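Technical annex B. To support the medicinal chemistry partners, we prepared a structural model of the target in complex with iron/sulfur cluster, based solely on the information shown next.
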Amino acid sequence: MLLRHTPETIAERSALTINPAKTCQPVGAMYAALGVHKCLPHSHGSQGCCAYHRSALTRHYKEPVMATTSSFTEGASVFGGQANILEAFTNIFTLYEPDIIAVHTTCLSETIGDDLPQIINKAISENKVPPGKTVIAASTPSFKGSHVTGYANMVTALVKYFAKNTGKKTEAINLIPSFIEPSDMAEIKHIADSMGVKYIIFPDTSDVVNGPMDGKFRMYPKGGATKEEIEASGDSRLTIGLGRTGTLDAVKLLDTQCKVKSEIIDLPIGVAATDAFVDMLRVEGNASVTENLLLERGQLVDVLCDMNQYTYGKKVSLTGDPDILVGLVRLCREAGMEVLHVVSGTKAGPKFDRKIRELAGDKVVIKTGAQADMFYFHQLLKNERPDIILGNTYCKYIARDMDIPLIRTGFPIYDRVGHSYFPLTGYRGGLRLLEKILDTLMDRIDRDAPEEKVELVM
Ligand code: SF4
């Protein structure tokens, strides 16, 4: 068994990471850039980095992910990649005709110290950026942070380069989601649409990385926030950041750059967090809660009550990204489950710890950052065994080693489908998550029950 030798005894580590519970910053930056219409992500580094980032997203979404690279070789690695990227701008605008090139850096270009704002200014002065086209850049060195910080940095760059305050305030509300699935972004739009709220959402990867198969190749799928929408976000009356870790910097910058007041709330996962989101839209968007939302809420509450005897007291351990973890912990607690462990490779800070403890109590073990890795998560589980694990595909080795059922949540999920199309956010997402939890727990009861105790009706 692959992870059989993970020891139970936990030794304090200050430097070593074993099987990180995160991936690298550019993956998140690339994903955020895909949520802008006719925007082509560009990786400023070696071809290997870009190939890895694209393949991580392609394997998770089962869709081709378009991105370009500065293709560093030995020369660029020593002298810097300015010549490479200047040539790349000409080639990309000629061959692929994007409206926007969103450049993110890599470990290599950051270590060399390439000055991207200066390089972009040089490209503009040398007419390598055609009229009406834009190049933006985000710093995403992967020797720190994670895919979540890379996502946050690219979203902040979208605000920095595009958001404008024209002095004429509009009634629109900006919605900035943390690193979540396209299905989750679609669910957030479904809630706002059904209440008739005027909103701008960015980035928006729905209809980009979960598009239909219709036999036609589109270099730029129809989804994504438009440049004009992001520009107009500077005139909106309010910004709602959905998930603190992934949105804080962008929300703060919109406030300081364009004087758009802001609120940061949790991702709407579970009943209470979705209620909070709906209520904020109701108050700030001067809207009413519609019958269909009440129906969706009622169905989720109904299943929570009906099936409580199967979830109550069940022990769960979770690993993933901080903003999603807060939502998952909340829904597990709403189902009466006991949360044992919460581990994230993305550093989340004291507010995250406080929130998890408020939801799950003082006994829960919380660790975030570089040493909060899969090895440590496995050790925790060996010391206190949960009934189920919530986490990404990499948890399957731990689940197999310990014969604990795994529900795949978060990023990446390489070995199952569905996450692109079915949300975890909103009341409908809560219902889906609850169904997955119940199916998993009840399958285990069926598997382990002695023959005479197998129940037809549960
Ligand atoms: S960790 Fe650094 S070197 Fe490795 S793929 Fe990511 S950006 Fe490239």
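Notes passed to the chemistry partners:
The longest helix spans residues 426-448.
The chain is about 45% helix and 15% strand.
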